[in-house]
Amino acid sequence: EALPPKKHQYVFEFRDPSWYTEAVYRLLRRHQAALCLHDWRGEKSPQELTAPFSYIRFHGATGKYQGNYTPEMLESWAQSIREWQRQLRDIYVYFNNDVGGYAVQNALQLENLLASAATPKLCA
């Protein structure tokens, strides 16, 4: 149950749904560790905030590590991010690079959607 000192921020990305339980969320909250919000294999993880920051990882719009996100998909995430900005210190958003090279384009599109609000730190 012990994590290293609080000088670092910790994020946990689970790939098996059995990890998405209240007991795990309580443990993450106790240590101010974030649950990675992601769309691995086209399925969204629970959008559970467990730390004063959030980490969002886009794995690909059409499958594992591939695809271009549509404006509608990005707007849906932008709406959630806008809401979370009111309660979180930082939001980190990462797009996995894919064979089509859409990561940078999609990151810029999401950044533009968020331009009217405080912009989270974006990395592609």
Treating each run of at least 4 consecutive H or I residues as one helix, how many helices? 3
Number of separate domains = 1
How far apart are the first and last residues' alpha carbons, in Å? 32 Å
The proportion of residues forming helix, as a percent range, comes to 25-40%
Walkthrough of the structure:
- With 124 residues, the protein is α/β, with parallel strands linked by helices.
- The chain has a single domain, classed as TIM Barrel (Alpha-Beta Barrel).
- It contains three helices and six strands.
- The strands form two sheets. A four-stranded parallel beta sheet has the order 3-4-5-6. Strands 1-2 form a two-stranded parallel sheet.
- The protein starts with 10 loop residues before the first strand and ends with a strand.
- The mean pLDDT is 89.
Which helices and strands, and how do they pair?
Blueprint: E1 11-12, H1 22-30, E2 34-35, E3 37-38, E4 53-58, H2 71-85, E5 90-95, H3 102-113, E6 121-123
Parallel strand pairs: 1-2, 3-4, 4-5, 5-6
Helix pairs in contact: 2-3
